[in-house]
């Protein structure tokens, strides 16, 4: 019955077998030998057994960290499923005939031996036969992890290049230690620093599957879930942030536009020191000291041009929005409380 399956369905069944069992199955008949030598099957099995590199890169891309080109061009990594050119190159190099690539109703399949060679290469890295190799791999991984932690010491203020390089170096560690919970924790931390909470949760979920007792994973997961619950809402609550976490949701943007108009009593398009003092009084229950007002003007605004062309120290709509994004990332409940103060339903963000 296995011989009658389309290759793509056979692959799904075969992925549940261990590598040794799959090799034994290939000895049962010529047909099964060919089906078990499918390149796509073994490249898929690398992802199943040693971590899905493609998924890692896609999640990082969702967080704004693009390392695809580094991975594609790296000579330090075993080729992966997207490098179809490698399979085609192998096919031409080993003298295979034009029939080595076939298609069924599920897509193209190739039988060049490239996939199996990739699996063996990755297996040898994860399970080295030499104790010396194992010790060298361990020392290299530890040094790389220490370097990544050092690179991330500046937190969210680090440059995009630093985040990309740190994420790529973790891929190098994961090549030899695919079940390292610390790699997934550090990827999650990078996403968290970039306010990409959903990608962060994706990495945290994988990491906790690998090692649910790894304390840093637990602590970061608790913090991220708390922010996500408040920032994106639960049940019928409207989100405060957009999907990327980099800006307000449409509901929050509308509410802040209305709030700005209410606070801008002189209608000049800028919240001056007096108007900002009134905002703080309304939200905190008492007027702030002038020095505090000066600090918040400097933190999110500055010298701002009014609609009449004058320059005033204060905030525009963007300043007010940036303030509430920052507050939401720190404490979403505080933002919802402020919205209630201004007459908005804290759950739906609708003007009541």
TrEMBL record:
The keyword Transmembrane helix does not apply. Gene3D superfamilies: EF-hand. InterPro entries: EF-hand-dom_pair, EF_Hand_1_Ca_BS, EF_hand_dom, F-box-like_dom_sf, F-box_dom. Residues 251-286 form the EF-hand domain. Keywords: Calcium. One of its GO terms (molecular function) is calcium ion binding. Residues 1-45 form the F-box domain. It comes from the Eukaryota. This is Uncharacterized protein.
């Amino acid at each position: 019955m296995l011989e009658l399956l389309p290759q793509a369905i056979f692959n799904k069944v075969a992925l549940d077998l261990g590598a040794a069992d799959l090799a034994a199955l290939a000895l049962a008949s010529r047909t099964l030998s060919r089906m078990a030598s499918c390149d796509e099957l073994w490249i898929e099995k690398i992802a199943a057994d040693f971590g899905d590199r493609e998924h890692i890169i896609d999640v990082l891309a969702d967080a704004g960290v693009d390392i695809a080109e580094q991975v594609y061009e790296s000579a330090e990594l075993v080729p992966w499923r997207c490098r179809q050119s490698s399979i085609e190159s192998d096919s031409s190099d080993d003298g295979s005939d034009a029939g080595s690539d076939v298609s069924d109703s599920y897509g193209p399949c190739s039988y060049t031996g490239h996939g199996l060679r990739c699996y063996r290469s990755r297996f040898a890295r994860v399970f080295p036969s030499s104790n010396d190799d194992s010790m060298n791999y361990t020392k290299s991984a530890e040094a790389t992890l220490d370097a990544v932690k050092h690179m991330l010491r500046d937190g969210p203020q680090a440059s995009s290049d630093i985040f990309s390089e740190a994420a790529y170096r973790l891929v190098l560690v994961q090549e030899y230690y695919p079940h390292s919970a610390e790699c997934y924790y550090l990827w999650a931390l990078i996403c968290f620093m970039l306010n990409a909470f959903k990608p962060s949760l994706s990495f945290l979920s994988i990491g906790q599957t690998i090692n649910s007792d790894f304390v840093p994973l637990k602590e970061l997961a608790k913090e991220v879930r708390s922010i996500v619950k408040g920032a994106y809402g639960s049940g019928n609550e409207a989100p405060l942030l957009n999907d990327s976490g980099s800006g307000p949701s449409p509901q929050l943007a509308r509410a802040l536009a209305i709030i700005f108009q209410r606070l801008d009593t002189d209608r000049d398009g800028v919240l001056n020191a007096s108007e900002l003092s009134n905002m703080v009084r309304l939200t905190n229950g008492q007027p702030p000291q002038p020095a505090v007002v000066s600090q918040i003007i400097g933190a999110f605004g500055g010298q701002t041009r009014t609609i009449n062309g004058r320059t005033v120290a204060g905030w525009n709509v963007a300043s007010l929005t940036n303030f509430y994004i920052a507050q939401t990332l720190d404490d979403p409940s505080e933002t919802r409380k402020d919205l209630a103060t201004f007459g908005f339903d804290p759950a739906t963000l609708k003007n009541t």
